[in-house]
Specification:
Blueprint (H helix, E strand, L loop, with lengths): L11 E5 L16 H16 L2 E5 L19 H8 L3 E4 L6 H5 L6 E4 L6 H4 L12 H21 L3 E4 L24 E3 L1 H14 L6 E5 L4 H11 L5 E4 L4 H7 L3 E2 L9 H14 L2 E4 L2 E5 L8 E5 L2 E2 L4 E5 L1 H12 L3 E5 L12 H15 L3 E4 L3 H8 L8 E2 L3 H8 L5 H7 L1
Parallel strand pairs: 1-2, 1-5, 2-4, 3-4, 5-6, 7-8, 7-15, 8-10, 9-13, 15-16, 16-17
Antiparallel strand pairs: 11-12, 11-14
Bound molecules: adenosine monophosphate.
Length: 415
């Protein structure tokens, strides 16, 4: 079912949201982006005349009640954002009465789902090496189903709008969907937008399609790169991960970040890319520092010839000039990961330039998706978030989607 076609009038809807917002030491919300992200879905339920039950996790309480991670602390923020009072149920697994007494137009927030180990469904207090682990796992899967069934019993309809946890097969993100028929489960508006953005690049990309992959480690991006080799025309590899490639090619990389054990994989990526006709653009020169700090002295070196005592920390003008042309000629752009240590202002120039090129290419008609971790922080830092086509809200979920994995939260609804 599509949310836009559903009329919530007279129905109770249980909506999985991602209210895992940052709090300060006094429990005040320091950034309510995630609450605002869920508003279109939440408001649709209420304005149709439905009753709204919101459920979320916060932090990692590991299956135990933890007052510091209570969602009670954010009830007022949610009420303010919604423009409606929000009731609170102190125990998410014992909210039958609170849910039953909810009238059309009313809203209820359930306590942190992860106070119950059943939410994540991992057996507690037993090590994976224990011979009884499999048995414990099986028992936990059964309790997880019961927990999901209880949550499902509160409502007539299930909506999943928590993209941030879409890569998890948890009680509230996937298992619960089994207790609703196809006409009574749906993705929320935020989830729909995220899924569409993923499809725009992975399934319906216009060519040339360029992926810009940066960040610190090859190990965390290898699966992404491998999946993209079947889809992109151009692959720009920047940031710390580039140095594993240069070392593997026999270059001297000084003190630059690298992963020796991934050197064969790096060479493999280059060989595969060549076979598949993908053009790979590694950096040609780097802005290096004589220490890992913002105040380090800066010098530009050829990426295969960095002296000891120096480490590559930002993209050089020569690399940026080449990358700019590739990006500006693209019709689809996927950007994941900064091309330098952008947290240090003196080494943030390359990442800022990339953000501008992606924004300019978008202005010229390209579709651009920025997602999966620090590149989102980068477009925000340079004030360009509204100048790209879409900025993903889910770091881990977006990364797994780009790796080509099926997201359980989406599959549970769409099959
Ligand atoms: P990731 O989470 O893998 O996308 O990596 C993001 C991190 O990579 C950021 O914190 C950057 O500071 C870091 N990074 C990017 N380029 C470099 C580099 N040349 N050397 C060290 N760290 C880098």
């Amino acid at each position: 079912m599509k949310i836009d076609q559903f009329n919530f009038a007279g129905k109770k809807a249980i909506v999985r949201v991602d209210f895992n917002v940052p709090l300060d030491e006094n429990g005040n919300v320091t950034d309510d982006t995630r609450i605002r992200g869920a508003l279109p879905t939440l408001k649709k339920v209420l304005s149709d005349g439905g009753a709204l039950i919101m459920m979320s996790h916060m932090g990692k309480p590991k299956g135990k009640v933890n007052a510091k991670l209570s969602l009670r602390q954010i009830t007022e923020n949610v009420a303010k954002a919604l423009g409606a009072p929000v009731k609170f149920a102190e125990d998410c697994a014992k909210a039958q009465e609170a849910a039953a007494s909810l009238k059309p137009g009313e809203a209820l927030l359930l306590e942190n789902l992860r106070f119950y180990p059943e939410e994540e469904g991992k057996p507690v207090g037993i090590d994976k090496t224990d011979p009884k682990y499999d048995e414990a796992k099986k028992a936990m899967k059964e309790s997880q189903k019961a927990f999901a069934k209880t949550l499902a019993s509160y409502a007539d309809v299930y909506v999943n709008d928590a993209f941030g946890t879409a890569h998890r097969k948890h009680a509230s993100t996937a298992v619960i969907a089994d207790y609703f028929d196809a006409d009574h489960k749906m993705l929320g508006y935020l989830m729909e937008k995220e899924v569409k953005a993923i499809n725009n690049v992975l399934k319906n990309a216009k060519h040339p399609f360029t992926a810009i992959i940066g960040g610190s480690k090859v190990s965390s991006k290898l699966a992404v790169i491998k999946n993209l080799l079947d889809k992109v025309d151009n692959l720009i590899i920047g940031g710390g991960m580039g140095f594993t490639f240069f070392k593997a090619q026999g270059g001297k990389i000084g003190n630059s970040l690298h992963e020796d054990d991934l050197m064969p994989e790096a060479l493999n990526v280059l060989a595969e890319a060549e076979k598949k006709g993908v053009k790979v653009y590694l950096s040609v020169a780097t802005v290096a520092g004589n220490g890992f700090s913002n105040d380090a002295e800066r010098k530009i070196f050829d990426t295969h010839n960095i002296p000891d005592g120096w480490e590559g920390m930002d993209a050089s003008p020569a690399s940026l000039e080449i990358w700019k042309k590739v990006i500006m000629d693209s019709k689809t752009i996927l950007w994941n990961g900064p091309v330098g240590v952008f947290e240090f202002p003196n080494f943030a120039k390359g990442t800022g330039e990339i953000a501008h090129y992606v924004a300019d290419a978008t202005q010229n008609g390209a579709y651009s998706l920025v997602g999966g971790g620090d590149s989102v922080a980068a477009v925000n830092k340079f004030g360009l978030a509204d100048k790209v086509s879409y900025v993903s809200t889910g770091g881990g979920a977006m990364l797994e989607a780009i790796e080509g994995k099926i997201l359980p939260g989406v599959a549970a609804i769409e099959g």
